[in-house]
Amino acid sequence: MKRSDGKEKQAPDETNVTQDFEDPHIYSTTEPFYPISFLRVNGANTVPEEERKFLPEAHPPSFLSDEEVYSLQLTDKDAIFKHFSLAVDKDGLKMVDEKLIKTQKSFIATLLSKMGKSLFSANTIGLSLPARMTEPRSIIDGFADFLRLTCTFLKRAATHPDKLERIKLVTAGFISSIHLLMRNKKPFNPLLGETLQYTLEDGTEVCGEQISHHPPISYYYVVGPKKSYTLCGNFSLDPTFKGYYILIKMDLKFTIKFKDGHTYIVHKRPNMKIAGILSDTRRVLVKGPLIIEDKTLKLWSASFFDYGEKKGIISSEKTIPKNECEGIIYVSKNVNGPNRKARRIADLDDVAKELTRLKGSWLDKLEINSVNYWDIAKAKPMKIIYNSDPLASDWRYREDLIFIRRGDLDNADKWKDALEIRQRRDKKLRVSFMAKEP
Description:
There is one protein chain. By secondary structure, the protein is of the alpha+beta class. Helices cover 22% and strands 28% of the residues. The strands form two sheets. It has a 16-stranded antiparallel β-sheet that branches. A hairpin with a 5-residue loop joins strand 7 and strand 8.
């Protein structure tokens, strides 16, 4: 394998290692783990006696091949929805994998029997799920998929001479990428310090790091082609059971700065709702506002999803299909912009001057002042080129993720448990150390 600078990448020392060539997916039958592992506690590939009881009863895997790394990089909406067994309906995305629905329903019923009503107020991001219930990706890698479309709009905005046009493109960029975050399984929680490095096909450089374990927070830093813009900020998922659905709050704050100093802040993006978790009909919906501030021109963009009124007191039907959105770009009376509890344009009480409106669907297209800015059938997400010489903390070195990508669920669970135990032990050590500080 070649490094990004064209030189041959140096493999770790494999002296005195027994390679099990009969199984190319196993690195060694004698070594506890590969020299690059989140379970290593010292420079040598050895395990102190007190650590041995925490090792998984499983051999370490060989690294992912390029084919395995890129196997989940999907390039159009049909492939994305088919891969996740999702189909578009009038409200959102409907899960069509009956076997998976049955498995998930059974698992949730088991959780209910164990946790009772407390489950409905629990933050579920920390729940340890078996490998069969998880997507073979880490959140820090999976969430970054939105950049594959968002960055195409940021690149256009960076060179556009009309500053008002920029906020339209920035808004379109974030709306166009919502469907890239849809899942039918929960991604793996990133380990503290886990990293991500890749380049998009237009030259955009992306890196990310997990900076907090609980609450789980990922930080991203993005540099556009020819340093035309930067995007940086943090993101976290906050999923909670709400009776018959799961609400996934997407808390984030991104700062986008163009080469000429023009600056935007993305304050909020819509949440995800997984409805029908105890039934045979399950849907993935998007609800809430997308709020973007133009710090330079003092403008605001507020877009609202699932903004229709209910048809009746007990009805879940809305006057507007739930996948549609409406939005407005305007000058605000308030320095802090719109009320964060607003759920539609009519709720805004801070509009000093309206500049333009937008309308569309996160599953179809977006129009701003009747001009089409995005069409899901035509827009193709950019391809990702993962760094060939990533940091040792890269998500690709996680043994549990490697095994689950290969369909080996038993070994995936064993390594997943070992890594989670290490995370909890490390946290206790940090807390203990901080308590001793003067």
